[in-house]
Design brief:
By secondary structure, the protein is α/β, with parallel strands linked by helices. The protein has one domain: Cathepsin D, subunit A, domain 1 (Beta Barrel). The protein has a 6-stranded mixed beta barrel. The chain has a two-stranded parallel sheet with strand order 1-9.
Length: 153
């Protein structure tokens, strides 16, 4: 390499070094269990309840009654959700704007509404909330892989 080319390359490398910034700190993710306390935040009030964390669910789902009491909304769309019990293999659910707090982290989002009165937990937290903020460790809240083996506080 000629001296002139070498000085140009050195000049460019030095300029890049001077302008480069140190890498951002990695966001520290909070460890959560299979069941966690959450706060559903709407226009009327905040409601605290327990939620099942489901890394297989794309979107968070909130019981209709909790959504109504909290004042979630407005309905912004309708989502097609897989369903084992529906003959078509899916069901349609209303999607509302809302906010959820989990372990001190608040996330605004769009949640599906469903009748979860027959379910063990009135809120199911999906990947839309847990992505990039949390790591799921079921041993944190449960003695085994069974949902019924919840640890006593």
């Amino acid at each position: 390499m000629a001296a002139n080319e070498k000085s140009i390359v050195d000049h460019i490398l030095n300029a890049v070094k001077e302008k480069s910034t140190p890498p951002e700190k990695a966001v520290e993710k909070k460890i959560i269990g299979l069941v966690e306390k959450v706060k559903i935040i709407g226009s009327k009030r905040s409601i605290e309840t327990e939620a099942l964390i489901d890394s297989g669910a794309t979107r968070t789902s909130v019981d209709l009654r909790i959504a109504a009491r909290a004042g979630l909304g407005p309905v912004v769309s309708v989502a097609k959700v897989k369903s084992k019990t529906d003959p078509q293999g899916y069901t349609r659910r209303a999607v509302v704007k809302g906010e959820i707090e989990l372990r001190g982290i608040r996330r605004k989002g769009r949640f599906t509404l469903s009748d979860r009165s027959s379910m063990a937990y009135p809120v199911l937290v999906g990947r839309d909330v847990i992505h990039s903020n949390f790591v799921l460790d079921i041993s944190k809240s449960h003695e085994s892989h069974r949902l019924s083996d919840k640890k006593k506080p």
